[in-house]
């Protein structure tokens, strides 16, 4: 599939509902489904978030940038439309959002989840390692949000959830680039929340701790054992626990929560 335009392949989920639907929300009762985008939405935490929003009754588009095979498998299995573009590229985001909105309607829910790691001690880090992480993990917040915020303001409703990290809260050796980007997300979230609070738009962050994902599963057993030992509840989190938190913040009934960071880390970091 093409990096910049894979309409035929990415728009093949014929079962996707392009109109608002009624369903049951996480908090009970009937609600109206809204159009949602989840970046990095086909793998790991992002996949769980995509499915949680879908199960809450929303019309969800999952955005990805690499691993075409995983994205195709996700789309085929879950019948969720997937779209491919680089969230670190402003023009690609503008074009991609337009494609999504033609497919599922004006976006009222944005989950900025896409992220990468390029770990290394700062004194050995290359400029490419630094800027690639900053642009993808933090620059994408601007690129994606800029593409939907005016429409949200005009319609008087929006939910933006930005995925930070426990390492953006406490720092982590060997991840100055990642920690800086994830900490920057928290400032971005607060400022954007203040700018849009009177427009019916909430902006919040979720900071996951260590969860049972493919990335964590690849860690050496002794390292993983040490990680779990440092978590007060004594286990890794699950992607579903993070996803349900995001789905709650995206719900119409979460309108009095904005500018907040919700830590989902088993007590490993207490703000």
Provide a count of the helices: 10
The SS-based structural class is alpha/beta
N-to-C CA distance? 43 Å
What characterizes the major β-sheet?
Answer: 7 strands, parallel
Question: What is the CATH superfamily classification?
Answer: NAD(P)-binding Rossmann-like Domain
N-to-C SSE string, H for helix and E for strand:
HEEEHEHEHEHEHHEHHHE
Looking at the structure, what is the overall shape?
A: globular
Low-confidence stretches: 1-31
Q: In CATH terms, what is the fold-level topology?
A: Rossmann fold
Measured on Cα atoms, how large is the radius of gyration?
Answer: 18 Å
What spatial order of strands do you see in the largest sheet? 5-4-3-6-7-8-9
**Overall mean pLDDT:** 91
Please identify the top-level CATH class. Alpha Beta
Strand content range: 15-25%
Fraction of residues in helix: 40-55%
How many structural domains are formed by the residues? 1
Oligomer: single chain
The number of distinct β-strands equals 9
Question: What is the correct CATH architecture?
Answer: 3-Layer(aba) Sandwich
GO molecular function, one term: acetoacetyl-CoA reductase activity
InterPro entries: Acetoacetyl-CoA_reductase, KR_dom, NAD(P)-bd_dom_sf, Sc_DH/Rdtase_CS, SDR, SDR_fam
Organism: Pseudoduganella buxea
Family: Belongs to the short-chain dehydrogenases/reductases (SDR) family.
